Amino acid sequence: xxxxxxxxxxxxxxxxxxxxxxxxxxxxxxxxxxxxxxxxxxxxxxxxxxxxxxxxxxxxxxxxxxxxxxxxxxxxxxxxxxxxxxxxxxxxxxxxxxxxxxxxxxxxxxxxxxxxxxxxxxxxxxxxxxxxxxxxxxxxxxxxxxxxxxxxxxxxxxxxxxxxxxxxxxxxxxxxxxxxxxxxxxxxxxxxxxxxxxxxxxxxxxxxxxxxxxxxxxxxxxxxxxxxxxxxxxxxxxxxxxxxxxxxxxxxxxxxxxxxxxxxxxxxxxxxxxxxxxxxxxxxxxxxxxxxxxxxxxxxxxxxxxxxxxxxxxx
Length: 315
Description:
The chain has 315 residues and is an all-alpha fold. It has helices spanning 3-33, 40-57, 60-63, 74-85, 88-113, 124-148, 164-199, 207-246, 249-252, 258-283, 285-297; strands spanning 149-152, 157-160. The N and C termini lie far apart (50 Å). Helices cover 75% and strands 3% of the residues. Helix 2 runs antiparallel to helix 10, helix 5 packs parallel to helix 7 and helix 7 (164-199) packs antiparallel against helix 8 (207-246). The model is unreliable at 300-310 (pLDDT under 50).
């Protein structure tokens, strides 16, 4: 890339990553430090925020600091590639983020479709299990990459030291197994939820039932918006990896476009992680107040009695 384009990307990455780190840290703190916010849904949102925070954090060396240091070689270079400079933890956290969004869709599905059944509802035990699964699957996926990545002395870059077959398998698992399949499940679950809440005519005469229906619609709108934005902003990195792997020379010979595509797709990935806290703040008044309270005063609880938040609401 030219110096101008590279500078533009660095500025954009700086702004988006800073927003990512501040916003997602606030989300985690709001949930952890406010007892009323500690519902299963909010814990899933906090897990999503933690994963999104790590996406931005571990992209810093690769996007902002790559020109500020000389990468060492030898065993230290290999270790740095595995742990820091190649952003391996970024992809690990991205997998956790995708799986958490799928679990959120599952929670909404059972809360709306089977409100009086406890079979699919997320209790404390299931919540711990889902959070653990989201990270264990991500670590399982990333373990092979952690093992084979190394620093190449001649190329002066971190590379994957594996066969073409393993490389293509890895990209296929990323694009299909960890992106397309979870997205398909989310679409299927939310389609049923949207039809139940907005497409099916239901008569509710009791004030409490109408209030609960409004709360369900608001919360569903919030998480549905997060999922839609995730699909839009995650698509570029999946397309980049899939085309660069399976399109042969058609894609890879475009030398001027490949680095731009790489940077743009990763910018969209970190933007996807940065936008969620803004959605929470815009969609939920109490969540917005809690976040602003932390920013302004560093406080945890307000002395005022607040109305029950959409994100605090039970299902």
